[in-house]
Amino acid sequence: MDKKVLILCTGNSCRSIIAEALINAKLDGVSAESSGVKASGRVNPNAKKVLEKEGIWDENYHSKTLDTVINNDYDLVVTVCGHAQETCPMFPKPVKTIHVGFEDPDGKSYSAFTESYREIEEVLLPKVKEALV
């Protein structure tokens, strides 16, 4: 199963980057990219730190704007914040979209990022697998 997933959030600096890395590391046959509705242009240092600690950081992960990925083919688009869900654009090709929201750890302590990582791993990964069946 070679499936492509786009993780979409507002800033593309924390939740979507963590989700992208987790999907790429833990779901066989699924590749993920991430993007932001209003991309911040940077990966939050604590998001990078937690991914490095878990051994799944990749230097290719970076904050991207939606226009850089909107024409790619995806099997699934996942919004991970309310703002992205509300402003999720119409994609040129029909694509299944689901929403699995997570609290934004930006501006909080490192432990908030480890909690986000665990929550995304436990909640998002099974929902992505289910949606791709």
Task: Summarize the SSE layout with pairings.
Layout: E1 3-9, H1 15-26, E2 30-36, H2 45-53, E3 76-79, H3 82-87, E4 96-99, H4 110-131
Parallel strand pairs: 1-2, 1-3, 3-4
Helix pairs in contact: 1-4, 2-4
What would your notes on this structure say?
- With 133 residues, the chain is of the alpha/beta class.
- It has a single domain, classed as 3-Layer(aba) Sandwich (Rossmann fold), CATH 3.40.50.
- It is 37% helix and 17% strand.
- The protein contains four helices and four strands; from the N terminus they run βαβαβαβα.
- It has a four-stranded parallel beta sheet with strand order 2-1-3-4.
- α3 links the parallel β3 and β4.
- The longest helix has 22 residues.
- The radius of gyration is 13 Å and the shape is globular.
CATH topology: Rossmann fold
**Principal-axis shape:** globular
What is the C-alpha radius of gyration, as a whole number of Å?
13 Å
User: From the helix content, strand content and strand pairing, which structural class follows?
Assistant: alpha/beta
Number of helices: 4
CATH class: Alpha Beta
For the largest sheet, list the strands in their spatial order: 2-1-3-4
Domains, number: 1
